[in-house]
Amino acid sequence: MTAQHRDDLHNLASAAVVVGTDGSPASAHAVAWAAQTAADRGRRLIITNGYDLSATQAVLGSYDVLVPSVIETLREHGQQALDSAHRVAREVHPGLEIVTELSDRNPAELLIELSSTAHLVVLGATPGVGTFAHLGSTLLAVVSRGTGRVVVARYDANEQQVRRSGPVVVGVDGSPIGEPAIEAAFAEAAERDAELVVVHAWSDLSEGQFAGTSYLQIPIAELETAEHALLSERLAGWQEKYPTVSVTRRVHLSGARKHLIEWSKSAQLVVVGSRGRGGFRGLLLGSTSNHLVQHAHCPVLVAHPN
């Protein structure tokens, strides 16, 4: 990719919905979700496929990878994936502006780079087979190292239609580092004209302290009151910015993963931050985020600081 082409692609991706495809059913589902979102918001859709010539070279050796038939086969497979994704997106919305990008770069690096200016970056995931089964290292890399907002749309053969009803649900830890998730959740709820459900849980009672005092020395009722006050403080400014969004608050003693998974059964989107404390400690790479990305019943949006 030349420097000029890279600049042109960045300009095209600015404020667009970007989705990666590899031709699998999971990525086709992600393309459909991304196309519907782009159409609803009047945004351009960028569909990418990176066939990673450098990785192939490392495996086959510099001589073999230079054989024209090898390179052509890689390109052909990538183009087939793009053509299939283009048809899926066109079926969702015939008038959608669609740009396809076939690249010899590592797909994760390409998507991470585009995430810096994109409205959303979308990836598909296959449920229930190992950790980050679909797209493997690509999915993990983009979710953990991307910027802005990255959506993982989990493929479910029993529910292939894009869900457009139900609330937007956000997991909030109460710390300032969770602001990108709150901002993204309010914005998504406003875009979708949906109710926003704010789920707040803490689970480190035996380890942490509140205002310099061990949690175990504070009556649970007082702690819950303090957590409600903390949540109100975090939401106040955003409720003023998005006055039309109806907000429901749910504060729990523990069980962040359980509550978010349960909400995902009826939600159209679950939003989480890239880091957290308490019940959301290590949310991006810890057990809660891994579990959500693999098992949530709706797309999961991971909000990173811009």
Structure commentary:
It is built from eleven helices and twelve strands. It starts with a helix and ends with a strand. Strand 6 (168-172), helix 8 (179-192) and strand 7 form a beta-alpha-beta unit. The longest helix is centred in the N-terminal third of the chain and has 25 residues, at 68-92. With 306 residues, the protein is of the alpha/beta class. Residues 129-135, 204-212 and 276-286 have low confidence and may be disordered. The chain has a ten-stranded mixed β-sheet, sandwiched between helices. Strands 8-9 form a two-stranded antiparallel sheet. Helix 2 (25-41) packs across helix 5 (68-92) and helix 6 (107-114) runs parallel beside helix 7. The protein is elongated and about 70 Å long.
